[in-house]
Amino acid sequence: xxxxxxxxxxxxxxIDDEHEITKRIAERLSELLAGDYxxxxxxxxxxxxxxxxYPVYIAPDDSWSLACVVWxxxxxxxxxxxxxxxxxxxxxxxxxxxxxxxxxASEPRRALTPAGEHVWERGQVTVCxxxxxxxxxxxxxxxxxTVGIHIYxxxxxxxxxxxxDPATGEVQWFVSxxxxxxxx
Length: 184
Ligand SMILES: [Fe+2]
Description:
By secondary structure, the protein is of the alpha+beta class. It is 16% helix and 35% strand.
C-alpha cells in the first residue's frame, strides 16, 4: 500500500487531466487488487447503521484521498455527486452502481436522467467520477459486506457535495465526514 500511495502521489502531482489521472490510477488499483495485498481487518468492518468511509490516506495538501468504503449486506447510498474525480475498486463483495447524467446547475430542476446500471465484482475497478460526470447511487449486493478501495481528487470526507432526489432533481448539500474503524 505504501508503494501504491507513492505512485498515486506522483500521478496526481504530475498529470493535470482528470481523465488521464483516473485512467492511470485505475490501472494501478487493478494491479493492487490482483495481487496479494490485504487490508487491515478493522478497515473492512461494516456498521449496522449505515455504510462507512474509513480514511486510509489523506494527502497533506488535500489534493487526493484514499478511503475504504464498507457497506453491510443490503445497505445503499442515496443518489449523490462527488465534485471531483474518483476511482473505485471492489476488494470484497459486489456493488450495483446506478448512474445519472449530472444536472446542469443553471437549468431548471427536473427529474434526473438515468445513465445505466452496472454490477461491479471483486477485483474490478471503475472510474466512478470525473467532475462533469459524477452522479450515482451505490447498493451492496450479494451475501457478504461490500468493501471498496476508493481514490478521490480531494479530501472526500470534507468536500461539500450534493445529494439528489432523482424524481425531482432537488439538491441537498452535505459533508460526509470520515468514520473511525472499530476500536479506534
Ligand atoms: Fe459515490
